[in-house]
Amino acid sequence: MTSEQHPDQEPDRRQRAAERTSRRTPPPAPEPLAVPVLDSHTHLDLVGGDPREQIGAARAAGVDRLVQVGVDVDSSRWAVTLADTEPEVVATVGIHPNEAPRLGADLDEALRQIEALAGQPRVRGVGETGLDTFRTGPEGRSAQEASFRAHIAIAKRHRKALIVHDRDAHAEVLRVLDDEGAPDTVVMHCFSGDADFATECVRRGFVLSFAGTVTFANAEPLREAARACPTDRMLVETDAPYLTPMPHRGRPNAPYLIPLTVRGLAAATGTDLDALCAAISTTGERVFGHWRQP
Questions:
Q1: How far is it, in rounded angstroms, from Cα 292 to Cα 53?
Q2: Is there a contact between 41 and 70 (Cβ–Cβ < 8 Å)?
Q3: In the chain, how many domains are there?
Q4: Does residue 293 lie within any of the structural domains?
Q5: How far apart are CA 186 and CA 142, in angstroms?
Q6: pLDDT tens-digit readout, 77-113
Q7: Strand blocks (E) in 251-294
Q8: What does the alpha-carbon distance between residue 273 and residue 266 come to, in Å, rounded to a whole number?
Q9: Phi and psi of 124, rounded to 5°?
């Protein structure tokens, strides 16, 4: 989207997800991981089909825990319902930064509903929220920032992880987090910065979540960022149905493909695969708590 376009002119996430999943064949299952790991950010509502089948396919690939992420009120409610019924799933609730300008005068009410959901026990994060200057032009950025600041406050009040979407807005995201005071736990979803930005985030205590983009041929700066990130500050995610890792870029993504991203991350950082999976799992439990509670 150009900077002159209004966000309402851009196809929304559901339209783009439907286009991605309806016309393309899902990739084959990769070799399973020996040490289980989590998918720290997925959208099973956009992947389509029976979510239980997706959960089962992920489990068979060595992906035994999922974080279902809300991007608006309806998807946040859906995430909570799924997490309440599926022990492999926990939820986050939030208003995506590209959705905030679309809501207009209804944004405050949407945020009130997100706050009400944030207190649920299977909700472990607030967001995704943040800033995006790629799909939203200047006229929508004040709404994005107001929503971001509100999510920061909600995360602090409920002592939940803050899930940050940052697209082409690195400096602005840090400015808002520094200004508001970051919550105890911040996850930089689909980390997209370079090594310098990774160092700034790590210095602030943030966790960096790497998606399938780390496997792309043109993503050497992102692999350098991964090398600058300690393994105890690292997560992996699909952002399914988007950002499918190589060699299946452009086809629909789903949690069962996490092994491709983890292997790419291990190769990029020179880390033993099993050790990396164990470290990511430990970080996931630290960030989101235990999946199965007594």
A1: 19
A2: no
A3: 1
A4: no
A5: 22
A6: 999 999 999 999 999 999 999 999 999 999 999 999 9
A7: none
A8: 6
A9: -120, 0
